Amino acid sequence: MATSKQTAESIAGGCLCEKVRYTIDFPAGCQWPPDCTQCRKHSGSLVVHFITVSPSQVHWFSPGSPSPSATPLSPFKEFLSSAKARRGFCAECGTALSWRHVEVPEEIEILTGSVDEAFLIGDRTARVESKVFTETGKWEQMQEEEERDSKVRGRDLCLPKGGNFFFRNAIHGVTDMKVGGAKRWVENSSSGLVIPD
Q: CA 45, CA 7: separation in Å to the nearest integer?
């Protein structure tokens, strides 16, 4: 967790077509957030960032739904990627949204890439459209302003707290870098196998 800012109380996100939406509430003191082959296939990305939270912190909703739900609403679907793992996605647009292990019901992993841009980088639209960033030093100034914005949480969300997992599948020179000063695990923290520095 970043020490320079207070933890955001909640963030929001959803799929590309916006038919599946969610908010995540972070209680006081809550910690913010692999190289797994199944994660790569599910997301279409070499590296996947997850935010691990309790299912009770996630509130699912769809446009037009009267109130948030504790369980995902249609068109949310889950794919049984193994005997014990479920990968959530939007059945309309295909956006990868979540991962959960059936034997660990107290956790759900939300894909950080599905978090709304406003929480990751702020609202750059007006500044980019005005082309003010093309002036010398303005891009850096814009980034510094975003760092001070209490809603912008991208850095906090994307630096791993528990470690970099599934390094046995790392691609040399591409995904094998240690990120955020965290431990590098051969598989996951329960395996107990840490790659030494």
A: 28
The first and second tokens of residue 144, run together, are 């510094």
Q: Is the pLDDT of residue 57 over 80?
A: yes
Q: What average pLDDT does the segment 31-49 reach? A: 68
Are the C-beta atoms of 13 and 119 separated by less than 8 Å?
Answer: yes
- DSSP states of the chain as a string? --SSSPPPSEEEEE-TTSSSEEEEE--TTPPP----HHHHHHHTSSS--EEEE-GGGEEEE-TT-SS-BSSPPTTEEEEE-SSSEEEEEETTT--EEEEEETT-TT-EEEEGGGB-HHHHT---HHHHHTTGGGSTTHHHHHHHHHHH-TT--HHHHHS-SS-B--GGGPPTTTT-S--TT--EESS-GGG--EEP-
pLDDT score of 28 more than 80: no
Average pLDDT over all residues of the chain: 74
**What predicted TM-score, i.e. pTM, was given to this entire model?**
0.68
C-alpha span between 48 and 80 (Å, rounded): 18
Average pLDDT of span 172-182: 63
